[in-house]
Design brief:
The chain has 6 helices and 6 strands; from the N terminus they run βββαααααβββα. It has 182 residues and is α+β, with helices and mostly antiparallel strands. It comes from Daucus carota subsp. sativus.
Length: 182
């Protein structure tokens, strides 16, 4: 009688030298004899107990276009990329993940400002709720575009004694010299 279970698509059946039926896994080479009491269910053996570290496990996932769009815009902001960054790679992106459409430069500008406004609002609420002391510090730096900035940072410890630091504001400055900063 021929086996119809799909698991047998992953085995090569053969007769051993001692005239017993055996099956050899096409992937790891492990041999199973026909005695099911010693081997158990072949599907369990193949895919649960005898996993080869070289085999890849496939997992299903769901594409979240809103999360992808948000992460794309975060990448643009964090890496200081121009808003039009992805416009040249639309064809490539359609090949890699057809469900994701690269937003236009105007959409990136609008949504990055929206993200900023939401983060600023949440930060204000968080600082008001803390009712803790905070320390302020300033720093200057130069961006990849060679623009000088001054930054105002708040440092505080929350109720769980975790240290936080967050940028409250920054502005462009002409140079890092004391005269320009004052």
């Amino acid at each position: 009688m021929e086996s119809t279970a799909q698991i047998w698509n992953h085995y090569i059946k053969f007769e051993s030298e001692d005239n017993k039926m055996k099956a050899k896994c096409k992937y790891c080479g492990k041999e199973l004899s026909e005695n099911s009491s010693s081997n158990g269910d072949p599907s369990k053996l193949a895919f649960q107990n005898n996993r080869d570290s070289g085999l890849t496990t496939l997992n299903s996932w769901t594409f979240d276009k809103d999360l992808a769009r948000e992460d794309y815009i975060k990448m643009i902001v964090v890496d200081e990329l121009p808003f039009k960054f992805g416009e040249g790679s639309r064809e490539f992106q359609a090949t890699v993940q057809p469900m994701f459409q690269i937003p236009t430069r105007w959409t990136v500008a609008r949504e990055s400002y929206g993200m900023y406004a939401l983060r600023r609002y949440n930060l204000n609420i968080s600082l008001l709720e803390q009712k803790q002391r905070l320390c302020l510090s300033t720093d200057t730096w130069t961006s990849y575009q060679r623009i000088n900035y001054m930054c105002l940072t708040a440092h505080f410890i929350d109720k769980d004694w975790k240290l936080h630091k967050t940028i409250l504001n920054f502005c462009p400055i002409t140079s890092h010299e004391g005269k320009a900063i004052v």
